[in-house]
Amino acid sequence: MPRRAVDGGELPSPRVVSLTVVRDVEAPSETDSIFVMQFGQVIDHADGSPVPCCTEDGQFLSEQDYAHGKCFPIVIPKDDPFYSKFNRRCMEFARSAPACRNDRKFGYANINTHFLDLSPVYGSDDEVASDLRTFQKGSLKATPGPKKGYYYEKDLMPADNETTLDCDNRVNDAPYMAVTQTSLFRQHNRLAEELAALNPHWGDERLYQESRRIVVAQWQHIVYNEYLPVLIGRKKMQELGIFPLQRGFSHDYDDKVNPSILNEFTVTAFRFGHSLVQGNLVNEQREKEKSFLLRHLFFKMQEVYVPGNVDKFLIAQATLPGETVDNYFTVELTNHLFEEAGTGFGMDLVSLDTQRGRDHGLRGYNSYRAVCGIPRAKDFDDLLDLIPANVVESFKSIYASVDDIDLLIAAVSEKKAEGAAVGPTYACIIGEQFLRLKRGDRYFYDLGGQAGSFTEEQLDEIRKTSYSRIVCDNSDIRYLQPLVFKLISDLNPLVNCESTDSIPRMSLQPWKEVEITARLKY
Q: Helix (H) and strand (E) counts for the chain?
């Protein structure tokens, strides 16, 4: 059942929490690029639900209409400064599908796999995976890129039209999401083509599986070697022992570790990136060409088909600062999320995320402080060790007890952990999740002695991978900083994409087979 206040009463409406605590203030990071937010979305992106829980004019349904038990609508106050202008009192929210866990306890269904296997690119089941393949030379289906002068740009992910891309439908949320996944999709087809040239005797299945295996390994390496140190800090990673090895094989696999996605991780901790920025196009000279209101980009892929825009969206994510993780969220997300043309309003992401935490029965923020080794707060003022005074005062005005405070709104408000983009509570939860994903995955890329292990020579090449190299190799961008999750600086300058000294490129030579050996082996 959804969480209630410690005294058994109702918790404040998530919309009241959003209105009281959240501010629309720009607070750009001094060190991190937009890619920190966007890369996190590719790792974990929540599904919506089509179940109607409000009337078309924004009022509550009758009791009999709730009989299916899936509705958990968000109450909008009568005096809401924004929604009252549209006479909205009800915000759609459908409960997550329940499921029974292996330990026979109540849980929630997850239609994706629980591993870092790039399911947004390859699919999460055999049917989707097959639909995405050409079954020719190991490649994934593609849509020709837009025509630019006398030639076509690089391929895009498959699409039925110029408004939506296929595969995981969440790729259509906004162009930033689409172009980030496009870089990984292109990487697969590029590797499949190179492996086919290197091993002409390989058939479609071998080319597909080996290309997928390499791209997933590169993805995992980037996550642990580049992304997590920025997100949770190097100190936390050293404490957990999850830095990837620089040479040799790991033997970290533990069949007693459950790699399943933690409720706290998917529902709140990995939604830190929801303080999204507005859309921008930045050219090769690092000049901002065009800005978009985010409300005009949701589920609209037309901009991706404009010649040159894939590269410009990628450059924008590498060049512009991301927002800091805090209680500042743009109104594009708190009033205009997924806004339909002509309506003037959308949904409130902070309200939705808060309600999702309650729907999943998450405990209050104070409980997670204790779990993460942070002193449990006896009263509101005890929160001042990590949360700014003005935010604590706003908590006092809406929550009856310090134990009632929702995890999401408190955790995003924390002071940052040492060298991290998030506070200590989120660093704790995120760190625990990625520890499990590494130790509980028998196919993790750097493991030795497993059926899916690479050779040591192959592993050495995979370790040369960086996300900047993947962007360079799968776009027409000429200059990029080596560390794309960090802003351009004297220590992280723009370099030529052709420079393998500045941005190393892996070689596929360790995958070359002599045909007679391959015949004996297969």
A: 19, 12
| DSSP bridge pairs for 522 | none
**Distance between CA atoms of residues 370 and 429, nearest Å:** 12
Provide the token pair at 103.
Answer: 């330990």
pLDDT in tens, 133-181: 999 999 999 988 877 766 668 888 876 554 444 554 545 567 788 899 9
User: Per the annotation, does 114 bind a ligand?
Assistant: no
Would you state the structure tokens that stand for residue 493, as one six-digit string? 């300058």
Catalytic residues: 45
- Please tell me the distance from the alpha carbon of residue 144 to that of residue 187, in angstroms, as a whole number: 15
Domain ranges of the chain: 34-49+96-253+276-323+441-521
Q: 204-211, long-range: CB within 8 Å, 24+ apart, which pairs?
A: 204/135, 204/136, 204/137, 204/138, 205/138, 206/138, 206/522, 207/137, 207/138, 207/139, 208/133, 208/138, 208/139, 209/138, 210/138, 210/511, 211/138
Q: State the pLDDT confidence band at 270, using cuts at 50, 70 and 90.
A: confident
Give the helix/strand (H/E) hosting 99. Answer: strand 98-100
CATH 1.10.640.10 for domain 34-49+96-253+276-323+441-521, yes or no, is yes
Residues 6+ apart with CB under 8 A from 49: 70, 94, 96
Nearest Cα neighbor of 356 from 267, 264, 426, 269 is: 267
In whole angstroms, give the CA distance from residue 35 to residue 44.
Answer: 14
DSSP string of 8-56? SSPPPPHHHHHHHH-B----EEEEEETHHHHHHHHH----------B-T
Helix (H, G, I), strand (E, B) or coil at 7: coil
